[in-house]
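#help-structures
NK: newbie question, is this the right format to request a structure? protein is histidine kinase
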Amino acid sequence: MSERREHVPEYRWALPSVLLGDGADGRPVRRSTRDWIVDIAMFLTACLLALLTATELDGEPRGLVLTEQVTGVLSCAAVWLRRRWPVALALVSTVMASYLEMAGGASVVGLFTVAVHRPFKISGPVAAVNLVTLVPYGVLRPDPELGAGGMFVLGVAIVATVFAWGIVVRARRQLVWSLRQRAVIAAEDAKRLERERIAREMHDVLAHRISMLSLHAGALEFRPDAPAEDIARAAGAIRDNAHLALQDLREVIGVLRHSSSAGDDGPVPDPPQPTLADLRALVEECRQAGMKVSYTTRLEGGTPAEGDVPRGLGRTAYRVVQEALTNARKHAPDAPVTVTVSGGPGEGLTVEVRNPRWAHHGRRIPGAGAGLIGLTERVELAGGTFGYGPRSDGDFWLRAWLPWSP
């Protein structure tokens, strides 16, 4: 999974600003119903705090009271801009609150907004500015009952509580967003793996059928003087394999369409899958196409029948033999092929295919090695081992071992 994760776009791992309520590049974001409720609550909170402090202005000079009232109204109205300019609102209101009491409500809302909407490297200094401005406020306008020290302690408690609350809200939003993104990525990974599985099935099935078509067509091309019966038999084989290829392709495309439209409604049904018992039919089909194939099974451990092999295990073994025979037809069509399947419960199932590396002077069927790569992935996913390559005796050897639980 770590290798696949590298292909995920990087923007998924960055917390988008729109999640926190402010637009990118300073652009405003259209508020949702929830945003309107929160903004109204913040506005009312700022107004309530401003009204509570207004009761303490009795006995103050008329000019100061007027200044307090105007500042309180403007600062409360500025709360509506907190999503667009949270830092500016917090700093301006905090500086004003260092002397003016009615700006304190907007200052508290601004600090909370910055703690929610900005990372700690920005919100931390803003909180520090709030703490610093408590000193001139306590000195210039001390409370008769609490005094300068009591006012400072109370202010520190309020700043710490509001700031901590904002940090908790931000952390929760980040967690929820992260879980949602992980769910999206997991769903996309599942879709990609499903497409890879379907592509592997298409390759395994169609490569076999098309190689059979090429083999029969090559026989007709290089033996135009063959008896009419042989020509009719080859043409019939071409027709049958073309029909089977179209049928297999229709089934796989049907599964692909179902996987694209089903969503989370349920598991995607698999097309009919072969088992180990179908190997004999595969070998016989290749023999009828002119290949020289010998097939030997040595199943032990109280399970002598091919039909008793677990379906998943038999399907993987079938695909290994199918791809090996397809490659033999591509690269050494006239060479004899030996297929051996052995093993048992607890011991594991071993599939071995060998054929001489004969030179082929005709037109070679193109191949990119995707089949062997797909087989390696398929066998490793099943918990087995897979190897192939030329041997010193001149044969090409392919071997797969698959675990078989007793």
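mod (FA): yep, format's fine, and the tokens are attached above. The chain has two domains: 2-184, 276-406.
NK: thank you!
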